[in-house]
């Protein structure tokens, strides 16, 4: 009895201590939430109609953040704010349904006015924050959105630290800040910059210790893949130390995954590799079946089951299969086979295999599902690599002899236990690497076997013998002079202890100095011409919209600049305002007005032809009306303007239109409706009461017709 009483007393005492402690934790959390809400309300006005409040508390990397949301149940408005335990507002998002419109309109706020609004907003959140940041000059593309976006990067000792940045968006029509993100590390030590090596010393170190390499790159055009020779950096994960001139590895601590993040992603990538393929219709399948060199599903299944490595005994059922074209080669086909083995309700094994339907060579494979795991890693990296090479030699003999291990490839994560390895092997042709063609294979070091492999391989592609190419010494000059090589701070996560938790706001212990190739431009240089190339193999063009060089002093200079900011402009550096307006040039403007056709950042004959094909297909013009280089009259301009707005059928109704222009009798009767609608929309106005329908439009008038229409919407 005494023992029972004693035990009860112990339990009572434990409850006495535990309950207050739990209550204290809850109270502490409630208090922290209250502080966060007050801090936000002190700096950001919450509209009264946003009266529904929600929140959640997040803790990553030891940093607590509060995600607060105020919404309106009837007004279509909401505000989302993320604030951390140090009262630093990291995210802000404002949505008002009534102000969201995808129609192009003349902005009410200029870019300069919007920047003032943006910086006032930031200073209101933290008066000292912007002092540590500088505005990044944007490579402004043809902008289709309703917002100005301003980006800032952190600086210390006059040197940029790109891991910390601020982005803020301001609505062009309301002047409201709509979006704000702040990636700022509070506790960080910047390495002393008083003893950095010179840029010339860093360049020499780059040439001697890192350098460029000659490679084959692959580009796709008209569903055909072709190769070209280019110079690229040997390493993407290394840099020159800003103090010592030695080679350092880029720290990957900021990109740590959770315990299963990479494993799942790597295996899923193998399965998803077929996602870009094209499913065949029944008619196409019949056509394929008539091809004697394409194996049937049954033969593909038999082929795969005959490979002992896959372990496909009778317990594995073919759950799904389909034949698809290889997107890299129109003449190739791939069988996608999915096998499934149910061991128990909670334990299912999968084998996903892709096999060339003509050659029978394995293209990709992946193993997923619950399997037996050991308590510790089984193989060293070299042992795992040797096993992977043996598998590739067995399964992909046609590729294996052309493969070279890529020691520059690095998966962006670190694990001390090395429970997962991924190796990449690149294709070699004429003694030159082709990094776009590779085989990547993964080894699960906990389960103890190869878990998947995927290949990217161009067929029927010729590789020109590297002759008459530019010497690499000259390419270095192009790299340094046209692309750039400069000093910057980079995060050093070498002291990060928790390697299984990815932290969105993880504090970097140090920022160290390093020299890097400028990333504003691609670092791919043609070995034949010395041109900088984009990722499609074309000559790189700056994505920057500049004002015309010949508009200074024009009466309409401001209106022209506004249209340029709205992505409505000719693809020329000069406006040439008095020259006749060609049909193709007016169509370019009208396409930009209603997003009828996407031009990208270049204009050539092929692009023009594609634009016309699109316009003819959509019924805006007919084949007979196609006359790209013809100068258009005012009444023709009215016709095309109205057609682009979708009012063709209305404009061609007979007997309902009457024009008040003095020279209405000179207007083509078939175009009278178009002229009336265009003038009614304020796109084309007369002069001294006359419309002058037969006069040729000028390039300036073409722009102003659009500006006048937009300003009167």
TrEMBL record:
InterPro entries: SLH_dom, YcdB/YcdC_rep_domain. Residues 38-183, 313-450 form the YcdB/YcdC repeated domain. Pfam families: DUF4901 (PF16244), SLH (PF00395). Keywords: Repeat. Residues 660-701 form the SLH domain. It comes from the Bacteria. This is S-layer homology domain-containing protein. It comes from Ruminiclostridium herbifermentans.
């Amino acid at each position: 009895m005494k023992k029972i009483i004693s035990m009860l007393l112990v339990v009572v005492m434990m409850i006495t201590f535990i309950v207050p402690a739990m209550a204290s934790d809850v109270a502490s959390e409630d208090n922290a939430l209250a502080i966060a809400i007050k801090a936000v309300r002190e700096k950001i006005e919450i509209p009264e109609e946003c009266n529904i409040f929600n929140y959640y508390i997040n803790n990553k990397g030891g940093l607590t953040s509060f995600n607060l949301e105020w919404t309106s149940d009837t007004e279509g408005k909401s505000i989302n704010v993320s604030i951390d335990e140090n009262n630093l507002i990291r995210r802000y998002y404002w949505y008002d349904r009534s102000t969201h419109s995808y129609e192009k309109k003349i902005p009410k706020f200029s870019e300069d006015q919007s920047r003032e609004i943006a910086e006032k907003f930031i200073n209101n959140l933290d008066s000292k924050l912007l002092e540590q940041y500088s505005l990044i000059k944007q490579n402004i593309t043809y902008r289709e959105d309703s917002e100005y976006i301003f980006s800032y990067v952190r600086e210390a000792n006059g040197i940029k630290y790109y891991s910390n940045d601020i982005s803020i968006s301001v609505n062009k029509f309301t002047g409201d800040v709509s979006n704000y993100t702040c990636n700022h590390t509070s506790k960080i030590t910047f390495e002393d910059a008083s003893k950095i090596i010179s840029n010339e010393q860093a360049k020499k170190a780059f040439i001697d210790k890192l350098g460029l390499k000659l490679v084959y790159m692959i580009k796709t055009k008209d569903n055909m893949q072709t190769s070209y020779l280019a110079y690229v950096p040997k390493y993407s994960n290394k840099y020159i130390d800003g103090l010592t001139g030695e080679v350092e590895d880029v720290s990957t601590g900021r990109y740590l995954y959770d315990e299963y993040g990479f494993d799942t992603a790597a295996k899923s990538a193998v399965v998803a590799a077929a996602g870009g393929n094209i499913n065949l219709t029944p008619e196409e399948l019949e056509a394929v079946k008539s091809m004697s060199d394409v194996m049937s599903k049954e033969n593909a299944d038999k082929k795969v089951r005959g490979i002992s490595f896959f372990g496909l005994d009778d317990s594995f059922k073919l759950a799904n299969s389909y034949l698809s074209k290889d997107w890299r080669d129109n003449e190739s086909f791939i069988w996608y086979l999915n096998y499934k083995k149910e061991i128990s309700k909670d334990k299912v094994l999968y084998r996903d295999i892709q096999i060339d339907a003509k050659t029978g060579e394995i293209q990709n494979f992946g193993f997923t599902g619950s399997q037996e795991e050991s308590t510790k890693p089984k193989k060293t990296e070299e042992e795992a690599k040797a096993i992977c090479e043996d598998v590739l030699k067995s399964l992909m003999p046609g590729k294996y002899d052309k493969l070279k291990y890529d020691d520059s490839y690095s998966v962006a994560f670190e694990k001390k236990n090395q429970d997962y390895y991924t190796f990449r092997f690149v294709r070699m042709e004429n003694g030159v690497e082709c990094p776009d063609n590779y085989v990547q294979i993964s080894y699960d070091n906990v389960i103890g076997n190869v878990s998947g492999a995927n290949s990217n391989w161009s067929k029927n592609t010729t590789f020109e013998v590297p002759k008459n190419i530019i010497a690499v010494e000259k390419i270095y000059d192009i790299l340094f002079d046209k692309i750039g090589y400069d000093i910057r701070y980079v995060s050093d996560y070498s002291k990060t202890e928790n390697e299984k938790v990815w932290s969105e706001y993880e504090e970097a212990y140090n920022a160290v100095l390093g020299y890097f190739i400028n990333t504003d431009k691609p670092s791919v240089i043609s070995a034949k011409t010395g041109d900088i190339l984009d990722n499609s193999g074309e000559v790189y063009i700056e994505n920057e919209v500049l004002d015309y060089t010949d508009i200074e002093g024009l009466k309409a200079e401001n209106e022209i600049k506004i249209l340029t900011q709205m992505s409505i402009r000719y693809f020329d550096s000069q406006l040439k305002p008095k020259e006749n307006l060609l049909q193709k040039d007016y169509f370019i403007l009208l396409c930009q007005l209603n997003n009828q056709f996407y031009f990208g950042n270049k204009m050539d004959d092929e692009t023009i032809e594609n634009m016309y094909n699109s316009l003819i297909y959509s019924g805006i013009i007919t084949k007979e009306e196609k006359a790209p280089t013809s100068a258009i009259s005012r009444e023709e301009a009215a016709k095309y303007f109205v057609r682009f707005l979708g009012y063709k059928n209305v404009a061609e109704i007979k007997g309902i239109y009457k024009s008040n222009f003095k020279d209405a009798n000179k207007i083509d009767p078939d175009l009278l409706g178009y002229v009336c609608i265009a003038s009614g929309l304020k796109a084309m106005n007369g002069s001294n009461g006359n419309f002058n329908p037969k006069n040729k439009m000028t390039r300036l008038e073409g722009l102003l017709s659009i500006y006048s229409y937009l300003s009167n919407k």
